[in-house]
Structures are given as structure tokens and as C-alpha cells.
Amino acid sequence: MAKRRVETMEQNRVKLITAARKAFAGKGYSTASMDELTAEVGLTRGALYHNFGDKRGLLAAVVDQIDSEMASRAQEIGARAGDGWQGLLAEGTAYIEMALDPEVQRIVLLDGPAVLGDPSQWPSQSSCLQATKRTVERLIAQGRLKPVDAEAAARLLSGAALNAALWIAASDDPQDVLPKAVEAFHALAAGLLVSS
């Protein structure tokens, strides 16, 4: 009986997150109706409150899911680069480019910070930071990067990519801003390279 209850609760969480992603992407956080959202998936507001506490908690779960997907996608792209340095650049560039995705733009880069606060404090950003730190440590050990503090370098690289994505999302012309942001990101990152 308890197992069935846990399964039902997990199914309800998945339903609510899926419906919220759609509603937040389409209408934005402030205008998305929780009554419409819960009715759409055949649940009550009580199920929402039980699983997420409130609308803000639901947004946090949606942002965490999307941001984690973004990090995974960026890491996959970086892994295909074949070289640690090129992978680091490809990963950061991929994250920046995802700012053009309407769902990412609306939920993660505009509504997320407005409602949830500083993105660098989100749990999903913390795991992304740790992955970048490990890459930086490897590149320092290989003699490719200057022997700087790996955490400091990872924080600055992650912060640069995040702020570039935030800039693109808030821009009146994201397509115009994107190449400028990517070029500047590459130039900043190159400052960590050991001179040949």
C-alpha cells in the first residue's frame, strides 16, 4: 500500500512539472494559473502544495529540471570536442547558445532569477560548477592552463557563460548579441591558457 502511494505521489510530481513547464513557457510564471494547471492534469491545488509547497516551489522544480538538462546537453557537446580545452570552450558556448531556446529564455533566464534569486546559488548550477572545476583541474595538471586556483577559474568561467546567457535572454535582439557573447567568452577563457 505504501509503495503504491509513493508511486502515485511521484506520478503527480511528474504531471505537475510537465504541465508547469508548458504553462510557464507559454504564459510566463506570473500569469500562469495554478488552478488551470492542476485541472489540466486532473489534480487539485492540494496536490501542488503537498508536492512543492507553493507556486514558487513548483517553479524551482521546473528550473532545476531544465537547468540540469542544459548542463547535461552542454557536457555532451563538450565531450564530443575530443580535446579537454576545446571541450571546455564547446561546453560554455553551448550553454550560452541555449539562451536562444524560448523555454530556456523564459523559464530559466528571465522568470527564474526574478522569482528564485541569484542563479549561481541554484543546486543545478552547483553541480555544473563542480563539473567545470574538474575539467579545469585536469587542464591545469596537463599544463594546458595556468596554475591558478581551479575553483576560482571554474567560478569565473561558469559565471561568464551564465551572465552571457542572461544578457542574451534579456536582449531586444538575442541573435545579434549571441556572437558577441560567444566571442568575448572565448577571449576571456583563452586568458587561462599557458602561453606557447
Molecular structure report:
By secondary structure, the chain is mainly α. The protein has 2 domains: 1-53, Homeodomain-like (Arc Repressor Mutant, subunit A), CATH 1.10.10.60; 65-191, Orthogonal Bundle (Tetracycline Repressor, domain 2). It is built from 9 helices and no strands. The chain has helices at residues 2-27, 34-40, 45-52, 55-80, 84-97, 102-116, 123-141, 150-170, 174-190. Helix 3 (45-52) crosses helix 4.
Keywords, please?
single chain, 196 residues, mainly alpha, Arc Repressor Mutant, subunit A, Tetracycline Repressor, domain 2, 9 helices
What layout of secondary structure does this protein have?
Elements: H1 2-27, H2 34-40, H3 45-52, H4 55-80, H5 84-97, H6 102-116, H7 123-141, H8 150-170, H9 174-190
Pfam family, one: TetR_N
GO molecular function: DNA-binding transcription factor activity; transcription cis-regulatory region binding
Protein name: TetR family transcriptional regulator
Overall mean confidence score, pLDDT: 92
Fraction in helix? over 70%
Q: Name the poorly predicted regions.
A: none
Class by SSE composition? mainly alpha
CATH top level class name of the largest domain = Mainly Alpha
Largest sheet: none
Shape estimate = elongated
In total, the number of domains comes to: 2
Instruction: Spell out the CATH superfamily of the largest domain.
Output: Tetracycline Repressor, domain 2
In total, the number of strands is: 0
User: In CATH terms, what is the architecture of the largest domain?
Assistant: Orthogonal Bundle
